[in-house]
From TrEMBL:
Keyword Transferase annotated: yes
Enzyme Commission number(s) from the entry: 2.7.4.9
Keywords annotated in UniProt: Kinase, Transferase
Gene encoding the protein: tmk
Protein name: dTMP kinase
Amino acid sequence: MTGKFITFEGPDGAGKTTVMNNVVAKLVPLLDDQLLVTREPGGNNISEQIRTVILDKKNTEMDARTEALLYAASRRQHLVKTIIPALQAGKLVLCDRFVDSSVAYQGAGRQIGMDAVYQMNQFATENTLPDKTIYFDIPVSVGLDRIAKYRDKDAVDRLDVETKTFHERVHDGYLEIAKKNPDRFIMIDATKPLEEVISETFSVIKREGQNFFKE
Ligand SMILES: Nc1ncnc2c1ncn2[C@@H]1O[C@H](COP(=O)(O)OP(=O)(O)OP(=O)(O)O)[C@@H](O)[C@H]1O
Ligand SMILES: Cc1cn([C@H]2C[C@H](O)[C@@H](COP(=O)(O)O)O2)c(=O)[nH]c1=O
């Protein structure tokens, strides 16, 4: 595969999506159709349908392993139908969340085991991992405060409304994944002012995707 696969990860409210939107606005004039911006769960028709089921606040009875399998099913479809074709076409793929989210949220957050969730996802992805992962770190209380303050009530999903203890486990899970993958993870302090986080993220992408920016 000739493209480059970069993921954005972090606890809820870290600002990934806001930062990604701002960075993409700067990248589009430079890269045009060499860029694919996508997200998980979702990113294509079937995967977005699965997203709706997973995140629906009415689905309170969903079992933790069912949840993990649905994220993996959505990911499989997204990977083979959207991400891999773009990488084969030589594109820079920026994806809001990927396998690390499942390991942190389902493995650590839901306590079904980080290794077990990772293995199950290896089956789903045939061992595909991002080239680089930009991790937006934030204390749980700050992320949750941002969501409470700024997010439209209707846009709050089934995972956002989990307990602070759940989100603490997710955060600890992320730090463990980052520690195990020092070559892949790039840490960004997401408590900094938004403009600084955007500029730092843009610089990381220009450095990591330097082949895309040659004259
Ligand atoms: N550096 C920042 N400083 C202050 N506020 C910020 C910063 N970054 C993002 N925000 C605000 O925090 C809120 C949450 O941001 P956003 O939705 O991008 O987070 P997220 O990481 O994508 O969360 P989720 O994973 O739950 O969707 C938004 O209202 C956004 O404007
Ligand atoms: C991919 C993935 C996501 N999640 C969680 C993380 C968030 O709470 C939601 C997705 O919402 P976002 O606003 O688009 O970030 O789902 C998860 O638990 N496991 C996963 O694999």
